[in-house]
Amino acid sequence: MRFREDCQVLLNQMKEITGIQDSAFLLAALKAADGDLMEAVTFLTEDPTPEPVQSPAAAEPSAWEGSVVGKLPQDVSTVPAPHNQDNLCTDTVRPLESPKAPAAERDAAERPQDAHSAENKNRSKRKRCEVWGENPKQNDWRRADDWPVGMKNIGNTCWFSAVIQSLFQLPEFRRLVLGYSLPQNVLESCHSHTGKRNIAFMQELQCLFALMLGTWRKFVDPSAALELLRDVFRSAEQPQQDVSEFTHKLLDWLEDAFQLTVNVTSPGDKSENPMVQLFYGTFLTEGVHEGNSFSKIETFGQYPLQVNGYRNLNECLEGAMVEGEMDEAAASQSVKYGQERWFTKLPPVLTFELSRFEFNQSLGQPEKIHTKLEFPQTMYMDRYLYCNKDLIQMKREEMKRLKEKMVTLQQKLERYMEYGSGPARFPLPDMLQYVLEFIATKPTVAVSCAQSSQTTLLHSQAKPRVLDVLSQPNSIKERTDTGTEDEAFFVANSSPQQNSDMELQPPVSPAELSEHPAPHVVSEEELNLVQTCLQRWRNEIEQDVQDLKESIAGINLCIEQMYCDPLLQQVPYHLHAVLVHEGQANAGHYWAFIYDQTRKRWLKYNDISVTESSWDELERESFGGLRNASAYCLMYISDQVSRVGADGDEGPEARQFQKEVEALSPELRHYIQEDNWRLEQEAEEWDEEQSCKIPQMEPSPTSELQDLSSESGPEQSSLCEQSVRSLSSEHARIAKEQTAKAIANTADAYEKNGVEAALCEAFHEEYSRLYLLSKETPTPQNDARLQHVLIYFLQNNAPQQVVERTLLEQFADKNLSYDERSISIMKVARAKLSEIGPDDVDMEEYKRWHEDYSLFRKVSIYLLTGLELYQNRKYQESLTYLVYAYQSNTKLLLKGTNRGVSESLIALYRRKCLLKLNEVAASLFVSCEEAHVSEGVSILNELIIPCMHLMNNFEISKEDLDAIEIMRNRWCSYLGREDMDAKLQMKLGELLPRLLDGSTEVIVLKEPPKIRPNSPYDLCSRFAAVMESIHGASAVAVK
Prior knowledge:
41 helices, four-stranded antiparallel β-sheet, 1039 residues, disordered C terminus
């Protein structure tokens, strides 16, 4: 139809003029303009009233009083504002405060930023590993005051560290081990190999505990004690030991060693053995077997619990204490189940062994169970004690009855909520509501286009409001097809012939004309009757559903509170340690969370590292279900042991440890002194080695600055200032082409008013240009911060003094000696720069801003280089650049979101690169060719594993965590493959512990090769090319 063609022509013209492609939006504007094309275009293109903008730290220079440039004569310091000055800050702000501005104002401005930086610093204080520096400083070897010491991992020995640390932090156990001694006659009479081995191990454990008390080292070396264990645990197939196996063996050895002392006074009496008293308890088993009742008492050390099928520790214990259910006719009145266990004596230290490994029959190898299992910080053991047997049996019967009732109610509720006899089922209340809506719907017929047009014409005389028009979301296609108000707008000016054409419509069926499904014929009486019945039924059904839900909620509450009886909360056990395993059944890493009674907080013991932790972190890493890490062993202590630990540790821990050291035997005290003396000798030798080393690379300006700032003497401040200027001078040199262009534009001012007027005009115009650039909206292909240091400063609200000094220093750059005018302006700028002393501008702050920009450029260059190498499939080189870019960028982002580049972009391509490289390394490894296997192992050890450990910190993203799991699972899938020879399987067994080990040993990545800095123009062009290629998925090569 003609009016539609006219409409489309107008819309096409508006799209061409305004660039707006939204047809519905353009049509609304056209309606608001009563069909006037030019008025509609004006409406769409006019600028809205600008909102006032708050003044940033550094603003457009509209007045120069008080600044260095303001020291010029008044008649030449007033420079016309740029054409776009309206877009600048509306308030008049001086670009540089007076050199004598109070330092207190600067301090007040810096305080919030410093607080934010400190907060971020505290949040990220614990890192898995560091990449900076090839050798840790010898101060990193030293223990910090009274902080607990770590334990060195000497090759798949994290299991030893986790268990020993948990036991050492039990004051009673520590006292027993350190106070262990045997009479000389007992030592001489011990001839068995087992007895000698146990005594030797006890002595080594004593020495280890003594060092853990009094050493000055940050961590101790357990090699001597481990050497005795290796003979017992030596296995070619299992290089990494099981915690429960080792704990069983350890307690056995300690029990045997202490039994030698007990035998002196009470031969053969194990009840006097302190290890038995501390770690062993007894339980009574009662049951019915083939109609016969039985009862027996057994001793336990570590109590085993199944994890599969249970949600929490209480459910595990309930399942372990009650097994099966016998026919009541065959059972006695006192035992209702097939077998029940009751604790008759609980040890002070109660250890639960969580069975998280099961054997997969189809695969022929063990698998780890990763399901989630919750456990409390305080566990009440009353419900499992024999003395509460009668009460608990009553409660179990009540619990059984409640659960059966719960199942019945849930089945009833399900019939309501999944109603129907077919495959598709729906809630019955909703179905009744839908029928009510159906019968209440009256049959409606769409009016013809001609009638709609005539009706709309009556309302189209008034001019529609703009907001009403713009609020209608329908598209232009929908409007023209339905022939309603939008169509009538153009029919108002159409000819009668066109109107007559619109009346010629083909016949349509009633179903087509009806907008919604509705009864064809329904009487008022039928409608009332059906509505009344349906509404009553629906109300009844809804009430039934509500009653069922409330009953289920009530039963749930009863079940949850079944054992909350105060009578069943008399025997509390407090969680002391959680031993965590990360990895698969065949390989992994262990660490421990241990509650520190003195500090009243959780600590994480991860080999040589001991760090503060929290219950939240313990939950994340111990409950399981989210990753391959989960608790493997839980150590609870009785209320009595907990109080003894707290009472004995009053005051600083260093004082308590010192008291314990003083109470040691002279031999152990001498052993500690010798080790501390050796530490001092090692530190001296390390210092000598470092002083003899030849630097391998020239120090960067930043490192030079740090060296100079550490010097003492009368010239320290001047040297520091000189070093600061080296960085700012470098930034001035980078921007010299832009500065030279600003000077070239001042020819008229130079000829008419002299050199100072030319400098003032150039300064003002350059500042205005950079200010406008800093306010432009960034795009994926453009980052204005790469163009100039001042754009970076302005976008990050740098102090005014820093901004102006930086710009003035650029006009004072010696590289600007192009002609007489440039030289003259450079000399005046240098003279004014010399008037600003260290007291006028905070040079430390000035240094930090320039260091940040230098690091920002380095991060950008590393990122671009890494992306280019990735696109050219050079994954090894790319990964190194991306890792360093990410690490440096993290430091910048701690100071503000606009200080660095996009963290998500670096993380994305670091992750992609790592996954690609892992595929390459894995393919090389399974090729079975010796050269390829060596190359694959080298890639894994030198790049993949260090990067994984850097990523795997406590703030790791879900995407990075998933990528790490994919890489680990790829290597774990090779375990037990029949097509892989024994030698390769052995090599895989050596690799997996490092791959799965989350220890905090320092991992060093070689810094990537130095890259010559680009000019701002080259860097921006390169940035645009790389960013465009990322979206276009095409490789680029930038020289």
